[in-house]
Every structure is written in structure tokens, then in C-alpha cells.
Amino acid sequence: MRNLVYRIYESMLERDLEPSNLPKHIGVMVDGNRRWAQLQGFDKVGHGHAAGAKKIVDFLTWCSELGIEHTTIYLLSTDNLVGRSSDELKDLIDIIVKLAEELVELGRWKLKVVGDTAQLPYEAAQRLSVIEEKTKNNPMPHVNLAIAYGGRKEISDAMRSILKSHAAKGLSIDELAEHLTPELITEHLYTTGQPDPDLLIRTSGEQRLSGFLLWQSANSEFYFAEALWPDFRRVDFLRAMRDFQRRHRRFGS
Q: Which letter does DSSP use for residue 250 in this model?
């Protein structure tokens, strides 16, 4: 009976959405996997990460069903690389790589790995390096997998790329200063060529960015869900879409 009620509620939520006013780009921070594993009584938090990986396939399917063309999934931060135990980190990286390869096999999305994968173990980095090549001819939607990602690192990498580009042209620092604009920095970010996210979703009740898309989120709307990521349901996703459409996006006006 409860499942039937949720299905009816889902249908009502989806029916009330305006297709012309949906986000073009959604970023999601998949938080709460470890707590979910602990609450389920598992000895290893890897069970939570595995459950979270399965939910990502569901989430991307929900986005595709609504015609969302760009999604960025925050899978592994640069802080995670130094803040997790070696055993947990090894399991997490293995789950993420297998997830990426599963998404390739499903063939539904154009994938791009964003982040500093040089910080990952060599084998994992090599397996991820083929992801973009294998899916480059897939039609939209476009999915960014943020792995070994940090927003400050992305911005510093963008600035480094700009400096190298201008040095190669023989331009001075003064000349670069004259040409340096927000638009130029945007062109050198990992997500170059993509629209900035309209909506950022974070699960597990936490209300902070944790370094996610710092530059791109300047005008993003935020939605914080109480559900732990493995428990995030389609009805929760549709509530986020409804909440987004109820907001008046002024962009400074």
C-alpha cells in the first residue's frame, strides 16, 4: 500500500512539472553512504559505497527521463584521498571505477571524468582514461564524473592553463592581466563548453559545498535532502525539481 501511495504521489509531482523550466545542468553530492552502511549494521562501509553506486544509475536514469542534458556527480574529492583509511579508499576507488565502466556498458550517456586522476593509483587512472574515448560518440545527455576533484584545484589548474597558453604566445604578465576575464577562466575549467549547473543537490542533511563546482555554482540553486544517498528515491528527486521550479531566479535583478 505504501509503495502504491508513493507511485501515485510521484505521478502527481511529475505531472505538475513544467518541461520548459527544468534545470539544464544538475550537480549532485552523493553524501551519506558511510552512515547508511553503519545504520544497516554492516561492518565495512564499502557496502554503503556499493549501494550508493547503484543509486547513481537510478539517478542518471531519472535525469534522462526528464530530459536533463548535463549532470555532474561528485564521487571522490581530493580531501577524500587524504582523509580516508587506506582500505576504505581502495574499496571506494574500485567501486567508482567499476561504476564508470558499467555506465560505459549501458551506453546511455556521454561521459567525462573531471578531476586530477593522477592522484589515483595507476591502474585506476588508466581504466578511467578510456571512459571519455569510449563514449565520445554517444548522444546526449552528458555526465561528468567528478573523481579526485576539488573546486580550488580546478580553479588553480585553470589559471595554470591560462598562464601556459599566454606564455606560449609570448605574451607578458601585463598583457595577460589586460585579457583576464571570468569568461576566460571559465574556458579553462574542467567543464568548459558546458552550462553552469542550475541546481546542486546534496543528500544526508549536510548543507555545505565541500569544494564542489565552486566557480560554476555562483548562480546555482541549492537543494538539501535529509535522505542518505542510498535511500534517495525518485520521489525525492521530483520534489527537488518541484522546489527548483517554485523559486524565482533573479540573477541579481
A: -
